[in-house]
């Protein structure tokens, strides 16, 4: 059997964990089941991650770097505040749709029986998303698209909208797509 390069096994473990999270039944994932899927021993898992919580942290790091990297790109490329906001919402919904297992991490349902700091971290991620909306909406206000006083309230509303779409996607067994009729709804929210 060919040996894997450093980091490859770790990535394989995280990819396998993410794919196991795509199971719409939402069963608890054990390290034994994960090890069997990766075709390694549980001890081998623990050589790469000190705990199951660290495995979830690896997924959260991937989510954070992906989402906020894309938000930064959108902010740099789109100068219109409303179009920037719209693009961020669409990206967040697309990310969820393309990564159903990650959606279960985003809404925190797979973190319920795990280390509490993981849920705290997901709450912080939601706060950072809301802050990104606030920045884009303040830009939109400075461009005369909406009153400055609405930026904070709308940012909260948009964050709730995205979280709700993620939640419905996960809770329907990934059948109700987060992007379904989203364009019209986003347009209504940004009027």
Could you characterize what this model shows?
There is one protein chain. The chain has 191 residues and is mainly α. It has one domain: Tetracycline Repressor, domain 2 (Orthogonal Bundle). It has helices spanning 8-20, 31-38, 42-48, 52-77, 81-98, 100-106, 116-142, 151-171, 182-189. α4 packs antiparallel against α5 (81-98) and α5 (81-98) crosses α6. The longest helix is centred in the last third of the chain and has 27 residues, at 116-142. The protein is elongated and about 60 Å long. The N and C termini lie far apart (59 Å). GO terms for molecular function: DNA binding. This is Nucleoid occlusion factor SlmA.
CATH topology: Tetracycline Repressor, domain 2
Tell me the name of the CATH homologous superfamily. Tetracycline Repressor, domain 2
Dominant shape: elongated
For the biggest sheet, the summary is:
none
Structural class: mainly alpha
Order of helices and strands: HHHHHHHHH
Binned, the helix content reads: over 70%
Average pLDDT over all residues: 93
Give the tally of β-strands.
0
What's a quick, concise take on this entry?
With 191 residues, the protein is mainly α. 71% of the residues lie in helices and 0% in strands.
Please tag this protein with its features.
mainly alpha; Tetracycline Repressor, domain 2; 0% strand; SlmA-like_C; Nucleoid occlusion factor SlmA
């Amino acid at each position: 059997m060919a040996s894997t390069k450093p980091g490859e096994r770790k990535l394989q473990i995280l990819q396998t964990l993410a794919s196991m999270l795509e199971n719409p039944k939402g069963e608890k994932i054990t390290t034994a089941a994960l090890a069997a899927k990766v075709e390694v021993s549980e001890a081998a898992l623990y050589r790469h991650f000190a705990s199951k919580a660290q495995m979830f942290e690896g997924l959260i790091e991937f989510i954070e770097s992906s989402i906020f990297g894309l938000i930064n790109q959108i902010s740099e490329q789109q100068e219109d505040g409303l179009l920037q906001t719209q693009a961020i919402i669409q990206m967040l919904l697309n990310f969820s749709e393309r990564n159903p297992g990650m959606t279960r991490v985003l809404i925190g349902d797979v973190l319920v029986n795990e280390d509490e700091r993981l849920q705290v971290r997901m709450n912080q991620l939601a706060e950072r998303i809301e802050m990104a909306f606030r920045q884009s909406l303040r830009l939109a206000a400075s461009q005369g698209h909406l009153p400055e006083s609405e930026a904070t309230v709308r940012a909260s509303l948009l964050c709730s909208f995205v979280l709700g779409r993620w939640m419905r996607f996960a809770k329907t067994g990934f059948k109700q797509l987060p992007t379904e009729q989203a364009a019209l709804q986003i347009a209504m929210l940004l009027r």
